[in-house]
Amino acid sequence: MVAPIRFGIMGCADIARKICRAIGLAHNATVVAVGSRSADKARRFIADNGLPENTHVHGSYEELLEDPAVDAVYVPLPTSLHVHWAVAAAGKGKHVLLEKPPALNAAELDRILEACEVNGVQIMDGTMWMHHPRTAKMRELLSDPDLFGQVKRTNSIFSFNGDSDFLKNDIRVKPDLDGLGALGDAGWYCIRSILWANDYDLPRTAIAFPNPVKNEAGVVLSCDASLHWEDGRVATFHCSFLAHLTMDLTVIGSKGTLQLNDFIVPIEQKSAHFTFASGSCFDDLVDSWTTFPKKHVVSTDLPQEALMVSEFSSLVAAIKESGAKPDHKWPTISRKTQVVLDAVKTSLDSGSKPVQIAF
């Protein structure tokens, strides 16, 4: 039996509580250490999250990376700190599960990916919905040329209405911590969903919509953009900290349409649904459809974040136990998402000028 991958959690952000629970649920992972900028904060995190009393306490991130019991680190730090600590973790031979967005720009991400490649460690970003079995089922239908045909249009929305405290104090609205704002947080999911729907074929051009909403520090709170392919495919997305919770994804093909309204976090933990229509048309009187969209329900015993941890840990175990090479699938997808995000940001900063996308 292969020993579980031993995680160190680097930082005690709110999202770390969710991943700590996910590591506990995964069959092939365990938390052995927590590092924070103070030992007291690490101890409180251990106690509050029901971790064993013998979990290693580290009063600095450097101490955590020196811990020989740690195989991999989960990094939920502000995005501005990712490049330093992910590179440092890779340099110590620690595999890296890195919160999204993984970097402020592609140049920073390339430094992270190079460090992981040189040191032979696995990296994966924390886009959880990618690991839900619903995602695989949707891909199966989108890949059927008879049912779906060719992608023509994709639309993605992720918004939530941040309260006054969030809009004033959250790290995602601070230019020195997460300067990408809503684009980096909510927009990352939108861009990833668009790339996923288009089988990771990069668009040629990004065009931000005019008049994004920014706070006094210049951080984006709400914005929209369109992506364009040379063959005529178009995608649009909206990301916002200022509108009601919405997680819509629509993928329109030449023969079918896929829709769901909770693509990032399923409304229910143990089952997730989507609708798929194929060959739809009107009846003779044009007052109803001849073929109705079908609701598909996909069940899971584990939440998507635990499935993410499990998949990451399996890749790490293959490297650790069998001498396998790191899997390049996940870092490649991360980089494609990042370069599109960069192009959208450049368009935003230039007053909505079209920006060419190059991988």
From TrEMBL:
GO terms for molecular function: nucleotide binding. Belongs to the Gfo/Idh/MocA family. This is Oxidoreductase. Coiled coil: none annotated. Residues 137-258 form the GFO/IDH/MocA-like oxidoreductase domain. SUPFAM superfamilies: Glyceraldehyde-3-phosphate dehydrogenase-like, C-terminal domain, NAD(P)-binding Rossmann-fold domains. It comes from Dendrobium nobile (Orchid). Residues 5-124 form the Gfo/Idh/MocA-like oxidoreductase N-terminal domain. It holds the Pfam family GFO_IDH_MocA. The lineage of its organism: Eukaryota, Viridiplantae, Streptophyta, Embryophyta, Tracheophyta.
